[in-house]
Amino acid sequence: MDIVLLFKALILGIIEGLTEFLPVSSTGHLIVFGDLLNFHSKGKVFEIAIQLGAVLAVIFEYRSRFTHVLTHIGKDPAVNRFVVNLIVAFIPAAVVGLIFSKQIKEVLFNPLTVATALVLGGFFILWVERRQSTRPPKVMHVDDMKMRDALVVGLAQICALVPGTSRSGSTIMGGMLWGLERKVATEFSFFLAVPVMIAATTYDVLKHYSLFTAEDIGLIAVGFVAAFFAGLLAVKALLKFVSSKNYVPFAYYRIIFGGLVLLTWAMGWVDWNA
């Protein structure tokens, strides 16, 4: 197997794991860095498949919570409410994504769309954080969330279908605007990632299974493992970070990173062909 391709898969796996749960758009980063590395998989099967590595990082980090849910569903009212909330939040983006996924990938999966969404999303995060600094949150624990809270988060997640917007950014900021405490919005975003990403990955893998080759399996394995360990690091770090700080630094990162991509395109320094 080509060692250069394996190295590229390793880099993209690390990028996926580090960015999946941060409000900076993992898909956007994979598109931009995939273009820089000249790494493009047919049907985006590599980029989609390695997301499961990041999902497993959340499951591992919250293994006691998920075990409790699986063993008490139907018995514990709090667990039942939690599961219903995940289902309610999952449905909006799943339906819209299922209907428009082909058009979204054909039209929006390119570095310039990503860069624009990163910049606009950065300014949006700055606005949300400034607004929330004067408004105390109404929901202080994930288990206190009601169905309408979950629905609002789910509707906000639809925005993440535009690459560069960020799934975690959309759900966290949408939750905070609605009144979820910052850490509550972050944790619910983590939990929601599990059914969303498993469903999206399964759908795309089954849809594009004919595109897989023996070489793809090796690349995906490398990216998968890298995404898992990088994702585990990111989840732990982000939870610790939001316990005492806000998302403003991520907003500035988005604006700078997206701005640099747009600048290099405008000046003709980089030929963004993805």
Automatic annotation (TrEMBL):
Catalytic EC class: hydrolase
Keyword Signal among UniProt keywords: no
Major localization listed first in the record, in broad terms: membrane
Compartment(s) where it occurs, according to its Swiss-Prot or TrEMBL record: Cell membrane
Annotated catalysed reactions: di-trans,octa-cis-undecaprenyl diphosphate + H2O = di-trans,octa-cis-undecaprenyl phosphate + phosphate + H(+)
GO MF, one annotated term: undecaprenyl-diphosphatase activity
Membrane topology designation: Multi-pass membrane protein
EC identifiers of the protein: 3.6.1.27
UniProt similarity note: Belongs to the UppP family.
Family matches, as NCBIfam families: PRK00281.1-2, PRK00281.1-4, undec_PP_bacA
Role: Catalyzes the dephosphorylation of undecaprenyl diphosphate (UPP). Confers resistance to bacitracin.
HAMAP family: Undec_diphosphatase
Name of this protein: Undecaprenyl-diphosphatase
